[in-house]
Write a sequence for this structure.
């Protein structure tokens, strides 16, 4: 067992390696959820110019959908990982078709207020039905246990969460930035009239984009269910941090959402080791510094 020590000028505090790597793992897990949620926000804002404040509630709905599938139908984790994002994504499509589509030409504030109201309604309905106490969700049997790496013990489920998040995040980036479909999406945000001239149904593309962004939040919610308690507040407790991640990475930037999400998760985890009293504010301090130096965000472009 060895230790990591800070320089004397920073207090000279020494941390056992097991504690350090344990917090690093927690940081990567939190970063996985930050990256997935901020990616969904970035996709929705980048393609629709809507600040989706209901994203945290949709993340919570993903977890609750998985819980209900288990309780009512006996479907476990793996079916829920597919079904819950589809179900919640469909609810997102309904919201976009019935409400959000009327706000695209208005100021961003209208979309933010509408989605904030939707988030309050969803959270209130779930809290009224299931209460505020968290509900347990069991780990899938195939991901129980862990691996002894020598310097730390790595639970299989935590490793799966990190790996799956990386695959989904970079898969989404590849589709948007490197495929013809992604080119159509990006063109539709720049010049929808020209894209319509090529026979592409732009409103349908926008609707499906919003549904996909919501499905990403639900996917993250299902993966979070076995780690955290399934509760109505799980989205509202996370969404403020996720918005900070999006701002730091750059509003609408796909790569910014991914790298900033994982990076800030790690920074937050390491801060809990060396400066625990600053762990709840370090992300917002970083956001303030980034906005002072680069107002468009690390990966953002100036308007």
């Amino acid at each position: 067992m060895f230790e990591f020590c800070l320089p004397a000028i920073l207090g000279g505090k020494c941390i056992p390696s097991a504690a350090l790597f344990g917090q690093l793992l927690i940081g990567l897990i939190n970063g996985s959820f930050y990256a997935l949620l901020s990616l969904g926000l970035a996709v929705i804002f980048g393609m629709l110019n809507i600040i989706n404040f209901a994203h945290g509630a949709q993340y919570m709905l993903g977890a609750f959908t998985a819980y209900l599938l288990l309780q009512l139908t006996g479907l476990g984790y793996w079916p829920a990982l597919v079904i819950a994002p589809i179900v919640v994504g469909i609810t997102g499509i309904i919201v976009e078709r019935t409400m959000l589509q009327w706000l695209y030409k208005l100021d961003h504030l209208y979309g933010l207020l509408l989605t904030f109201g939707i988030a309050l309604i969803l959270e209130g309905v779930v809290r009224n039905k299931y209460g505020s106490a968290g509900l347990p969700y069991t780990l899938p049997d195939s991901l129980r246990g862990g691996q002894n790496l020598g310097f730390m013990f790595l639970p299989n489920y935590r490793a799966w969460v990190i790996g799956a998040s990386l695959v989904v995040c970079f898969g989404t980036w590849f589709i948007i930035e490197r495929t013809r479909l992604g080119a159509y999406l990006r063109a539709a945000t720049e010049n929808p009239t020209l894209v319509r001239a090529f026979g592409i149904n732009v409103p349908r593309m926008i609707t499906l984009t919003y549904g996909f962004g919501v499905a990403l939040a639900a996917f993250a919610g299902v993966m979070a269910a076995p780690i955290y308690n399934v509760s109505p507040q799980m989205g509202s407790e996370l969404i403020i941090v996720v918005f900070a991640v999006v701002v730091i990475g750059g509003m609408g930037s796909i790569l910014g959402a991914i790298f900033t999400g994982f990076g800030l998760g790690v920074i937050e985890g390491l801060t809990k080791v060396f400066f625990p009293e600053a762990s709840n504010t370090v992300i917002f301090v970083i956001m303030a510094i980034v906005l002072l130096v680069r107002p468009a965000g690390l990966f953002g472009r100036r308007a």
